[in-house]
Structures are given as C-alpha cells and as structure tokens.
Amino acid sequence: MIAMILAAGRGERLRPVTDTVPKALVEVHNDSLLERHLHAVRAAGVETVVINLGWLGEQIVDRIGSGSSFGLNVVYSPEGDDILETGGGIHRALPMLGSEAFLVVNADIFTDMPFPTQEPGNDDIAHLVLVPTPGDKTRGDFDLVDGRVRNGGEAEFTFSGVAIYRPEFFANCAPGRFSVVPMLRAAADAGQLSGSIYSGLWRDVGTPEMLTELNA
C-alpha cells in the first residue's frame, strides 16, 4: 500500500513557530512529526510515500530527500503557493498513488498509532480511524455504530487525520482547492464509510501551547 502524508499547509494556528519551519518539521522531543510518521508507515509495511509540499516545502525535501534513510521511496507533490487543502491535495497526487486503496496521514498529529493498511470492505469507499474527542473540543466529528461512521447524534469521536481511501472516492472531483470533509460526510450518509477507534496516544499539534505541552 502507498501512503500519502499531507504536509503542505501553512500551519496558521501554530504561528509563530511555523513562520520559519513547515508544520511537518515541528519537533517533539527532537524528532519531527514528519519523521515520526515516516518511521510509522515503514513499520506498517509501506514502501512508497507521497508528500505534498507547500509552505517552506523545500525544507522538507532537504531533510527527507529520497526517503532512503527511512527505508522508503519518497516522492513529492508540489503545490507551490496554491495550497489545495486536504481533498485537492490528494486529488492532485492521485497519479502517484496508484489504482489501489492508499493510506493518508495528516502531518500535524502526534501519535503512537500503528497505521492501518487493510483495504476498506467491498462496499466501502474509505475507512477512517477515529479517536475519543479531546477535552479541549466541545463536540466531536462523527459517531461510530457497528463499525459504520455516522453523522449527527452525539458525534462522540474525532477524525484522527488517518484514513484509507479508494481512488474512486475522488472520481467525481475536479482539480482545485477543496476539503475532504464534505465528501466524508456524504459517504457516511450513503453508508460507504467504515471506521475504527484508536484510544492510545493522539494529539492534534495545532497550537504553540499544545506543542509546549508535548515537549514538557
């Protein structure tokens, strides 16, 4: 399975840290988020990783290179100054992601999660890993009922930023900037979205305060 790490964003919430460092290279205990993810996807059996590039992306290329030091083949999907958000970034990289289901990981999370590599079920177009909603959020994103991701209700769980998509998920998309979230909600309503829960270490490294807490 090929993996994609979403690393193009400006990281506005993490400023001023991200004024000089891309959010993917923000460090927790002297190890960048991106490098942690690369080790984790390799441990999951992944051999090829696509990384999209935007803000200060040249720093990522300089640090990671070909990926050989991680036992990986790393290829890049540059977006320049036109950051395409989650959906648009994945859609642009589809030619690099092949014809089978692929893993996607948000760069700006800190976790010890074993990344999944099992394809979604035959009737599913994607699989989401959900986490218990952190205490600093007033509401989660989704419910999970009998392994099915649902909208509405208690919205007890938060999307972890880790998912497996079939390429067909993006079949009707046009090139450009768009979020994957409305597509996930539509797939949930259509009963095409499976899910699982990870209850271990997971944090959204969204603010300087959270970064300070993780480094404490």
State the domain count: 1
Reading side by side through the largest sheet, how are the strands ordered? 5-4-1-6-11-8-12
Order of helices and strands: EEEHEHEHEEEEEEHEEH
CATH architecture: Alpha-Beta Complex
Shape, per Cα inertia axes = globular
CATH fold-level assignment: Spore Coat Polysaccharide Biosynthesis Protein SpsA, Chain A
CATH class: Alpha Beta
The radius of gyration computed from the alpha-carbon positions, rounded to a whole number of angstroms, is: 16 Å
User: What average pLDDT do the residues reach?
Assistant: 94
Low-confidence runs: none
Assembly context of the chains: single chain
Considering the protein shown, what is the CATH homologous superfamily?
Answer: Spore Coat Polysaccharide Biosynthesis Protein SpsA, Chain A
Q: What's the helix count?
A: 5
- Biggest sheet features: 7 strands, mixed
Beta strands, count? 13
Strand content: 25-35%
Query: Helix/strand/pairing class, anyone?
Result: alpha/beta
Give helix % range.
10-25%
